[in-house]
Automatic annotation (TrEMBL):
Residues 91-147 form the Transglutaminase-like domain. It holds the Pfam family Transglut_core. It comes from Streptomyces olindensis. Residues 1-24 are annotated as: Disordered. This is Transglutaminase-like domain-containing protein. InterPro entries: Papain-like_cys_pep_sf, Transglutaminase-like. It comes from the Bacteria.
Amino acid sequence: MDDDRYLRQTPYSDPGRLDTRGLPREPRRLAAMVRGLIIHRGEGGLLGYTIPEERLHHDAESRYVTEILRILRERGDGPLTEERAPEGRFVGTCRDFSLLLCSLLRATGTPARLRCGFATYLADGWYEDHWVTEYRACDGRWRLADAQVHAGYDVPFDPMDVERDAFLVAGDAWRACRAGRADPMDFGLSGVDRLRGLWFVWGNVVRDLAAVNGVELLPWDGWGPEFLGRAPLTADDLRAADAVAASGPRRLTGHARLSVPAEITSYSPYLGDRVVRLRAPSSPPA
């Protein structure tokens, strides 16, 4: 069954030797647990905490759950099920909340996968670059969960069942832009004029495709100037994204730009461009 595929850990979500016997099994409780372990690097002020610059710059470069857990162990020896003070948390991004929740869901028997796309509830009138976790609920329906959303957010929906028009997976955003139902210049990072547009949506289509196929990249990973809008998208790039958006990101294709190479470039906002060799999976995706 396809669900079995999303019970298996990837090199990115694998929690290593984490003892899962004391963890809750209910997705809502796991999401609350994740919120108590991670602080978004843009939200220190909400908790009255000044994030140290080193943590601000380096924590979110941890692309594997084993690294996130190592950092958490270094900052406190209490159980992961206990909410931590800000100074004891991992300083991450939406992708880190989503990846850790995905890891714990898989480890406790719930099929889950990362989704890359755009949220309408983080900035007014804007489609914000964002990541969430998609999991199979007990009723058999696949739901979107946003583990980053806490009591300080004013959202008109259950964060464990985010509405599909509140979070657009990247393929849906791509189709809306290509059909003229949405303006590509309304998609990207709010407040950063150079990080918006159709090229940005295209990059998220590629990252969402990779994530669903077991390669859960960092939000700023890529392998070519198109990923930063430094080169125009080709007709072949457009056609390939059209095909993925139409069919859904079920399997990797042979298109060179859509297949994740062994070495990628991390276009890190703080550390600059770096070539990174990714961990190889123990077995190919099913």
